[in-house]
Amino acid sequence: MKSPDELRHQLIKYWDLPNVRLRHLLSSSAWPMVLNIGKPAARIFNAEVTTAQRHVEAWRQVTVGKIEWTRVAYRSGAESICLPTKWYLRNPSEWISGTSDPRVSAEFAALGHLVQLAPEGFHQLLITRRGLWKNKSSEEVIQAAKLALQLFPGCAQGRPLRLLSGYGVDTKFFERNESLLRKMLDVLYEGEASAQGLCGFLDAYDDTSHWVLVTPLDQGLLPFKRQMVTTSELAEARLPGSRLLIVENQKCLHLLCPLPETIAVLGCGSDLAWLGTAQLEDRSVGYWGDLDTWGLRMLARARLRHKGVIPLLMTEAVYDAHQSKSAVREPVRAQDTPPVGLTSAEAALFSRLVNSDKGRLEQEFIPPYEVHTGLKEWVFRGK
Predict the structure, then answer these.
(1) Which pTM value belongs to this model?
(2) Non-local CB neighbours of 68 within 8 Å, separated by 6+ positions
């Protein structure tokens, strides 16, 4: 048998489970919530009559929800007795009242206020990801929801997030609410904000330290095989060698091959402003990214920073060779029209990808031998 206090603790645990919270706050079919109280074992009833009486009396004091009482007969008893066997809670308010917990009551009240004011599309996120808003004012959370509805891929146009204007928020708003905004944009754009990073998704200049993987592709160029470095450091460093290979994703490291006088920088994403440094003016810079609208937009951005950027393995021929087996749907496009900085052929490919049902060919699905051929053609071109 379970006491009221034991089941109150169970109700608190239910509240702290995101999936249970979601099901019982959004689905009317989840009600009533039924908790089994159980019956005293014959041993307790026979030897500890006082304990059984206290148990019955404790449940008679419960005024929240509905208690189901059942007549139970014990061998040692002269007649059957009425015992509490189930506790029915008929709605969320009774659930929260049943916990008798101030913390749960406060969270329920705050969540109810947010759900009442926030767009319906964000309700599931607010219910399941309690940590996103627990330590924020409801006004700030609602303001973030309104802001998320105004944002779209590329809307920052290279400006730092803190300098975006016209959205009715202060310069620190993005910094304070980065996680919340990113997750709200994930709801609207199928997870792309987290996949790209908020700055990458909005095409904002990342003025924080972004870490990338640096690896020499020729022996003796650097005293290490690979190392994480910030792009701010790269902007100031005079790297050895005559060539720099920029790779969109770190996960493509295993596809690279030895190349003379070449250093590779992997995982830049859209953080490409450092390519404009004077330290790189005399370098041959190759760029290899995904064949999708995001990859081509990053290529365009790289070329605006360094006019000599050479695209690698980012052609219509490469797409045609692998699209039937490896191309997939691009969940969210970077934009619908070709960005400034693409050649006419690249712009035509961009438009084709926009209108394709399978407009994304990720780097790692290109066979290693083809990657090696493309990289070596870049290095030995003109020799």
Answers:
(1) 0.73
(2) 84, 85, 86, 87, 88
- β-bridge mates for residue 230, sequence order: 211
pLDDT of the residue at 44: 62
Element of type H or E holding 31: none
Residues 6 or more apart from 244 whose CB is under 8 A from it?
262, 263, 264, 265, 280, 283, 284, 285, 286
Mean pLDDT score of the chain, rounded to an integer?
91
Contacts of 255 (CB under 8 A, 6+ apart): 363, 364, 366, 368, 371
pLDDT per residue as tens digits for the range 92-101: 999 999 999 9
Domain residue limits, the chain: 4-100, 106-202, 211-380
Residue that the structure tokens 């399978």 belong to: 358
Q: What are the b/e assignments for 289-328, b being 16+ CB within 10 Å?
A: bbbbbbbbbbbbbbbbbbeebbbbbbeeebbeebbeebbe
Backbone angles phi, psi at 95, to 5 degrees: -60, -50
pLDDT number for residue 164: 80
Spatial distance between the Cα atoms of 175 and 179, rounded to a whole number of angstroms: 9
380: left (phi over 0), alpha (psi -120 to 50) or beta: alpha
Average pLDDT rounded to a whole number, residues 288-307: 94
CB-CB contact of 58 with 117 (8 Å): no
Q: Report helix, strand or coil for 70.
A: strand
Q: 162 and 227 in contact (C-beta within 8 Å)?
A: no
Q: Which residues contact 121 (CB under 8 A, 6 or more apart)?
A: 187, 188
How far is residue 308's CA from residue 275's CA, in Å, rounded to a whole number? 10
Over the stretch 310-340, which tens digit does the pLDDT of each residue have? 999 999 999 999 999 999 999 888 889 999 9
Is it the case that residue 382 has pLDDT exceeding 60? no
Between 128 and 272, the more confident residue is: 128
